[in-house]
Amino acid sequence: MNNRMDQFERAKELFILYHGNTFQMYREGVLEEYKQFDVQQPLEKQWFEELVEKYTKELSIRDWTAADNLAQLASSYKDKAILENVVSFVSRHLMSSDSIVKLMYAERIVEIVKKMKKEIAIELVHKAYKAAAIILEDIMIKPLIVDPGHELANYNLTDKKSLNNRAKKSIEEIKNDLN
Hints:
- There is one protein chain.
- This protein is mainly alpha-helical.
- It has a domain at 61-178: Serine Threonine Protein Phosphatase 5, Tetratricopeptide repeat, CATH 1.25.40.
- Helices cover 72% and strands 0% of the residues.
- Helix 4 runs antiparallel to helix 5 (65-76) and helix 7 runs antiparallel to helix 8 (122-141).
- It is elongated.
- The relative contact order is 0.10.
């Protein structure tokens, strides 16, 4: 019994570590180990849902780690709740954050939509892109605001102009994706 629980814990540990992405497991050489546990789809679905809930609760205006994790989940788990949760958070909280956080969240929204576009309603695509576009336009209009610990160079940015260029690039991606 204890060995079975250990196997279950190891399977879940691998699942969480790789966000359920079997390709990443394969690349890291642990897919065969994971497959040995014979985890059934309903259990994997439960684990995905737990991760979505966990990362949604961790969304913050100080950083975008949870949004990155949700974007990684979207590669393997095409549940509209991922996008709805990020868009809802952004719509309620993000306008008071710094320029870099805004840019990262907008870029994550675009990334998640691209990963899930075929599986979600077009209305949600439009809502998500509208939220991202509002953030991106806000970035370009307002002065550069950078909180301590968010150094521009760490995000391939040098100044307000480079931030605006990246925001414009994301807006172009949205326009191209909608056409």
